[in-house]
UniProtKB/TrEMBL annotation, chain B:
Pfam family, one: BPD_transp_1
CDD domains membership: TM_PBP2
Lineage start: Bacteria, Bacillati, Actinomycetota, Actinomycetes, Frankiales
Main location: membrane
Keyword Cytoplasm assigned: no
Localization, UniProt: Cell membrane
InterPro entries in the record: MetI-like, MetI-like_sf
Keyword Amino-acid biosynthesis part of the UniProt annotation: no
Annotated ABC transmembrane type-1 domain residues: 74-264
GO biological process: transmembrane transport
Residues annotated as transmembrane: 20-40, 73-97, 109-130, 142-160, 189-210, 244-264
Annotated keywords: Cell membrane, Membrane, Transmembrane, Transmembrane helix, Transport
Protein name per its UniProtKB record: Carbohydrate ABC transporter permease
Length: 426, 278, 263
């Protein structure tokens, strides 16, 4: 596969943007203000406020039907919101037709025109622009130059005369990208652009997209349901659930401090373990107790019911035979130190290559722990005990699902958020 | 295929199968073949029992083309069929496109009406059509002959609608984002993708109109405008039954379509299949 | 719609005077013998052609489907020809071979020592002759539609039966034919709708409804009222009656068609 790694950055990055005399891309921040979209009485999108920063690579993630694709189509102008305003670069575009918003889009199925060649596909929008706007639109030479540049950038030079049916999935994706960037959009919208590719290609394409964003320097919004893409690609992450924004922030922050139980379980794999526990007073702050589970945390003023979470990779495993990365010996007496202690029987062992995921059952219900590949794996049926350090624990209010004070420190700072729902109780 | 199987029972079955099929083909086409053969027989021998025209002569064809306006009738038929076909395609395309693109609440009702229109027999429509054409003074004109035949375009609408719906919506979205207007999307994206379906509609409409008998006989009975199907009647009413030339003209009335059919039988059968299944 | 209004008028199509006669036209249709007679004859046409719309094309389609290949493709394209052949030309060809005096059919029958017949001139045979002539088009088109239904059958289920030791005949009888029931119901319905329409041209060219009105049908009757007797009102009433009858039939048969609708 030819990749743009072999191609030096083209003047596209610094060249003038259509409709703008500036050297840098026009402001491309996207703002949603009270945007609501309903289909037949059902609200599919309800975003009070969302800011996508200019020049960011923003990944919107959520389960299918959460409204993320609808949101993207609202930005594109393919859907009109029932209420609310959409701004691009500070300008209200809610009533601007799609072709005049300075946005372009790569569709999930790439939506290449099957009757046109690769270069005709890429030039389609420019040719229309030239026809609609004879004075300011691009002339023939400019169209040819821009199509050539876009092809070079995406390694399509050899494929210019082919038709979409003669291309592989990865090649089609790159044609879709070329068609989108040739118009020099302020905002590039990507609707699950990697889901049609096979696994190997997908990894490569992820890196290419990140590099492309760096070279173009415009705003990119990518919609995906793949939480790996969500964490790895963007500079800014938006998690959506049931039409609403659940959390926004830098991917690492969202991963480390999920705002609620939905984000906690949706982002990260294997998904976060959650247990319902009851708080009791403790000299160190609070003691959280449930069947087969006990934790000591620093926080105070906990609600009556608390949901305790920990990530599979944050647990330290102890077995009766003493196999443990932390070399702590299991004892029969209850541990007293801060942090979480949990017991269970090993039910299923999943080897994934770089690590091993252990599914356990115990009085606290089912839970999963992930062990590095260097660690000897206990056998199925063995009893294990697991410890999690207090700074790796997450506390949520059982009633609201929202994140509580950080269990490790005395006070947690607010979750970085550019809008949407702010976690309460901090 | 026979011959692959060496077992005698299978061979017998294959022979039976071919015999049945050949007899059926023969039975269904016999009248046409016999008439075709007879049309080459000299006048005195038209009713002769010989299956092949011996001696063969073009006398009947020469007579039909010379003494009767058969050439003119064929031209009329072609003009009518082509006109109806073009109108069907245009109306069908626009209607189907607006069904898909501008979906609205009343759509189901309109669509239901179009479907009903498919089952209404054309004979039930001829009276009002005839009256309208007569009122507008378009009797015995190509306009009167062609335009009312547009009434049967429900088939084209429904068929094209199916095909437009099969176009991925993202493709229309891509064109919209590329700045295309409705008309441009229709002309530059939808139309090229519908080539196959439009071809199918054109084939079915052209053949059906070519073969249409009832409407031309009513509305345009004069040789200046009427079609060959109606014109065949002239051979009887004017001169008494002149069988040789009549058969020759009948062959001329159907052979153009048959010739085209043999050039693209697969495509034409598929076209009828698509429209038949709708 | 206009037809509906017309059916309430008495009007000779051309003169400016027309009068509202209410349901008189319908009463005339029901009371005078012609229209009920025409409806009965239409029913006979349907019955006569039903096998040619269902069993015959189904058998042909299955035969061709079982052994795909060049030979089957050729048979298929030849068998489809009646659909594209001009009905008037076909009718004339039939009249030519059925000619009571010199037609090849009677010559052959005579040669074999069998009784000759005036097939189209005898009230006892004319309707069947017209049906047979029209049947070719049904066989041709429906064979194609059955072929499409067969092409969409799940071949794996048939392979499973073969593995279970079923013979080809058993597979046809117990697996293929039952799965074609939906198509057969549809074909029967189409036969009812189109029997009258498709015979129309043949009747108009060959017998004009005669002899003794034996080959009349509802559509020809409607045409006769309107354009032979110039009685637009009664013609329109006949048209409305036909559409209403078909609609009722359509509605009544809906559950049957739905039950056998292909998924």
């Amino acid at each position: 596969m030819t990749s743009m790694t072999s191609t030096p950055p083209t003047p596209l990055t610094t060249g003038p943007v259509a409709g703008s005399p500036d050297a840098a891309p026009a402001p491309g921040g996207v703002t949603f203000d009270g945007v609501v979209k309903r289909y037949g009485g059902q609200t599919v999108l309800d975003v009070a406020r969302l800011d996508v920063p200019h020049r960011s690579f923003t990944v919107v993630v959520g389960p299918s039907g959460c409204g993320k694709s609808t949101g993207l189509r609202v930005v594109a102008g393919l859907e009109t919101p029932d209420s609310g305003r959409v701004r691009i670069g500070g300008t209200d575009v809610t009533d601007t037709p799609p072709g005049r918003r300075g946005v372009s889009m790569v569709f999930q199925d790439f939506a290449l025109y099957p009757h046109l060649t690769v270069e005709q596909n890429i030039a389609f929008g420019l040719r229309l622009e030239a026809k609609h706007n004879r004075r300011a639109g691009p002339d023939k030479a400019e169209i040819a130059q821009r199509v050539t540049d876009a092809c070079a950038m995406l390694g399509l030079a050899e494929l210019r005369r082919r038709r979409p049916s003669q291309l592989s999935g990865g090649e089609r994706q790159r044609v879709g990208l070329a068609r989108a960037i040739v118009r020099r959009p302020r905002v590039l919208l990507l609707d699950e652009p990697l889901s049609a590719l096979d696994a190997q290609l997908r990894q490569h394409a992820r890196a290419e997209l990140v590099r492309l964003h760096r070279e173009l320097g415009n705003t990119v919004i990518l919609v995906t349901h793949d939480q790996l893409e969500a964490l790895s690609m963007g500079t800014n992450l938006v998690v959506m659930n049931a039409g609403r924004v659940a959390q926004t922030g830098v991917p690492a922050d969202v991963y480390q401090r999920p705002a609620d139980t939905f984000v906690a379980t949706f982002v990260g794999s294997p998904t976060m373990n959650l247990h319902d526990v009851e708080p009791r007073p403790h000299p160190a702050g609070g003691e959280l107790v449930g069947p087969g589970i006990r934790a000591v945390v620093a926080g105070a003023g906990l609600p009556r019911r608390v949901r305790l979470g920990w990530r599979a990779g944050d647990g330290v495993l102890e077995t009766p035979t003493g196999v443990s990365p932390a070399s702590e010996r299991p004892t029969d007496e209850a541990p007293t130190g801060p942090g979480l202690t949990l017991e269970g029987l090993i039910d299923v062992v999943e080897f994934t290559g770089e690590s091993t995921v252990i599914h356990c059952v115990g009085p606290a219900g089912g839970w999963r722990a992930s062990v590095g590949s260097g660690v000897a794996v206990p056998a199925v049926g063995e009893r294990v005990r697991l410890r999690v350090e207090p700074d790796k624990l997450h506390l949520f209010d059982t009633a609201t699902g929202l994140r509580l004070a950080d269990p490790a420190g005395p006070v947690a700072e607010p979750v970085p958020s550019l809008g949407g729902v702010r976690p309460d109780g901090v | 295929m026979p011959g692959h199987d060496r077992r005698p029972r299978a061979t017998a079955a294959a022979v039976t199968r071919h015999a049945v099929l050949i007899l059926t083909v023969f039975g269904m086409l016999f009248p046409m073949l016999w008439a075709l053969s007879a049309s080459f027989k000299p006048g005195s021998d038209v009713y002769g029992a010989s299956p092949l025209p011996m001696p063969a002569t073009l006398e009947n064809y020469r007579y039909a083309l010379g003494e009767f306006p058969v050439a003119r009738l064929l031209l009329n038929t072609f003009v009518t069929a082509a006109g109806v076909t073009v109108l069907h395609l245009a109306a069908g395309l626009l209607a189907a496109w607006s069904f898909v693109r501008f979906a609205h609440r009343g759509q189901r009702v309109v669509l239901g009406l179009v479907t009903v229109a498919l089952v209404v027999p054309p004979q039930a429509l001829i009276i009002p059509h005839f009256l309208m054409v007569a009122r507008l003074g378009q009797r015995d004109t190509f306009v009167g002959l062609i335009v009312p035949q547009l009434a049967t375009c429900a088939l084209a609408v429904l068929l094209l609608r199916e095909h437009i719906r099969a176009i991925p919506p993202t493709l229309i979205g891509a064109a919209t984002l590329d700045g295309a207007t409705h008309a441009e999307t229709l002309r530059r994206v939808v139309l090229p993708l519908l080539r196959g379906a439009l071809g199918a509609v054109a084939i079915v409409v052209f053949i059906t109109t070519w073969n249409e008998y009832l409407w031309p006989v009513l509305v345009a009975p004069s040789p200046e405008h009427t079609t060959i199907q109606v014109g065949l009647q002239m051979f009887e009413t004017q001169e008494g039954p002149e069988h040789g030339p009549l058969l020759a003209a009948a062959m001329l009335a159907t052979m153009p379509v048959v010739a085209v059919y043999f050039l693209a039988s697969r495509r034409i059968a598929d076209a009828f299949l698509q429209s038949g299944l709708r | 719609m206009f037809t509906g209004v017309l059916s309430l008028l008495e009007w000779d199509l051309t003169s400016p005077d027309r009068s509202f006669v209410g349901l008189d036209n319908y009463r005339r249709l029901a009371e005078e013998p012609e229209f009920p007679h025409a409806l009965t004859r239409t029913g006979l046409y349907v019955l006569a052609m039903l096998p040619f719309a269902t069993v015959v094309p189904m058998a042909l389609a299955v035969m061709l489907w079982k052994r795909p290949g060049r030979a089957s493709d050729t048979y298929r394209s030849l068998l489809f020809l009646p659909v594209v052949l001009a009905p008037v030309a076909t009718a004339l060809a039939w009249r030519f071979i059925l000619d009571p005096l010199g037609g090849v059919v009677n010559l052959t029958l005579g040669g074999l020592g069998l009784p000759e017949q005036d097939w189209l001139g005898d009230p006892d045979t004319a309707l069947w002759a017209i049906s047979l002539i029209t049947a070719g088009k049904f066989v041709a088109l429906n064979m194609l539609l059955y072929g499409a239904a067969l092409a969409s059958l799940d071949g794996r289920a048939l392979d499973a039966a073969r593995v279970d030791g079923a013979t080809e005949w058993e597979i046809t009888r117990h697996l293929v034919v039952p799965q074609l029931t939906g198509t057969t119901v549809l074909m029967s319905f189409l036969c009812v709708v189109f029997a009258g329409q498709w015979t129309f041209t043949n009747i108009a060219v060959l017998t004009q409804g005669g002899p003794d009105n034996s080959t009349d049908n509802a559509y020809l009757r409607l045409y006769t009222y309107a354009f032979v007797f110039f009685d637009a009102g009664t013609g329109a009433a006949a048209a409305v009656a036909i559409v209403v009858l078909l609609t009722v039939l359509f509605a009544v048969s809906a559950p049957l068609r739905r039950r056998h609708a292909r998924p």
